[in-house]
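SUBJECT: A protein chain and its fold
Encoding: whole-number codes for local backbone shapes
Chain under study, with its fold:
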Amino acid sequence: ICDFLVFVIHQGGCAKTEEEEAASSEEDSSSVRGSGFCKWFNVRMGFGFLSMTHREGICLDSPVDVFVHQSKLHMEGFRSLKEGEAVAFTFKRCFNCGGPNHHAKECQLPPQPKKCHFCQSITHMVANCPIKAQQLSPGSQGKSTASTTGEEEDMSHTPFPPDSSD
């Protein structure tokens, strides 16, 4: 089971709070972005399945089922999904091996060397990552990093056509 956040898409954008925007700007390379639609969701039980059709913006050959619990839904009001509703989400990979579908404590591999969670290098940790620092600094010239990561956030979502119900 992956640790992930689900954002419900409304007319091509994601419904997120400022707090969620800040959290999403801090994502590193262990986070994977997916998008698709709600396959089914049981409101009474508080869980369901998503059908992931895109991973990192690339269309998948066949949809992948992803379990979702209501506690991971980020939206206004009552947290639930409707069948067919478009969603975008992020999920984390195993910090030990980088594989999907499990966390480090459930990893079948022996402990791997510690590495940077941003670029996966074993020569440094994320706090001293030159690649992360380089990505955050170009173009900022005194501006806060939140403004540059906000632009990336807008471009990263897979656009969905507007609802055709007139």
Notes: Residues 145-156 form the longest helix (12 residues). The radius of gyration is 17 Å. Residues 4-156 form a domain with the OB fold (Dihydrolipoamide Acetyltransferase, E2P) fold (CATH 2.40.50.140).
